[in-house]
Amino acid sequence: MASHHTKDKGDLGVLKAQVDLFEQGFTILAPLTEHCPFDLVAYGDGEFLRVQVKYRAVDRFGKVGVRFSTCWADRHGTHTSPVDKGEVDLYCIYCPDTDECYYLRPAEFGSNASLRVRAPKNGQTKGVHFAAEFRRVP
After folding, report:
1. 53: which residues sit within 8 A by CB, 6+ positions away?
2. Rounded mean pLDDT of 68-93?
3. The domain spanning residue 126 has which CATH number?
4. How buried is residue 5: exposed, middle or buried, by Cβ count under 10 Å (0-12/13-18/19+)?
5. Is 53 in contact with 14 (CB distance < 8 Å)?
6. What does the pLDDT look like over 94-112, one tens digit per residue?
7. How many CB atoms are located within 10 Å of the residue 32 CB?
8. Nearest-angstrom CA–CA distance, 94 and 21
9. Helix, strand, or coil here: 97?
10. Which of 11, 27, 52, 65 is the most buried (most CB within 10 A)?
11. What is the C-alpha to C-alpha distance for residues 28 and 38, in angstroms, rounded to an integer?
12. What is the pTM of this model?
């Protein structure tokens, strides 16, 4: 069977998220369809969290970025639309460069988020989201 590179990366991200969430004490539930707005459900302390997983590498500026939108292509071109933040409780960003997962509540951000893996070269700290601060489920 031929592999599909982006699908493989997504599958790896979901597996890493499952292990990381399990290690944080969650029970992991998987939907029986690929058409949900979330990839898995984490259950802990009587609460269900719908989790969307993204695989994101560190960019040349030392950041891991995520857009809260979905993108697809069809015969009419490429389309992008914002995600319904009411359908997802948590984003898990798996970064292969750090081999770590980072957790964001999309409702707390605008259309995108950027986590710093490396400190900015100019030393700026105000308004900077350092990835290490997002290692645990909030």
Report:
1. 10, 13, 14, 17, 39, 40, 91, 92, 93, 94
2. 93
3. 3.40.1350.10
4. exposed
5. yes
6. 999 999 999 999 999 999 9
7. 5
8. 12
9. coil
10. 52
11. 13
12. 0.90
Q: Cα angle vertex 85, ends 100, 135, to 5°? A: 20
80 beta partners = 71
In the predicted structure, residue 4 carries a pLDDT above the cut 70: no
Number of domains, the chain: 1
Could you identify the residue written with the tokens 């986590």? 115
At 137, which amino acid appears?
A: V
Q: Are 103 and 24 in contact (CB under 8 A)?
A: no
Cα–Cα distance between 101 and 13 in angstroms, integer?
8
Domain holding 103, by residue range, is: 5-134
Q: DSSP class of residue 77?
A: E
User: Which structure tokens are listed for 128?
Assistant: 């900077």
Q: What is the Cα–Cα distance from 35 to 102, expressed in whole angstroms?
A: 23
Say how many C-beta atoms besides its own lie within 10 A of residue 20's C-beta: 20
Q: Which two tokens stand for residue 48?
A: 């269900």
Taking the C-alpha atoms of residue 30 and residue 42, their distance in angstroms, rounded to an integer, is: 9
Q: Which amino acid is at 38?
A: F
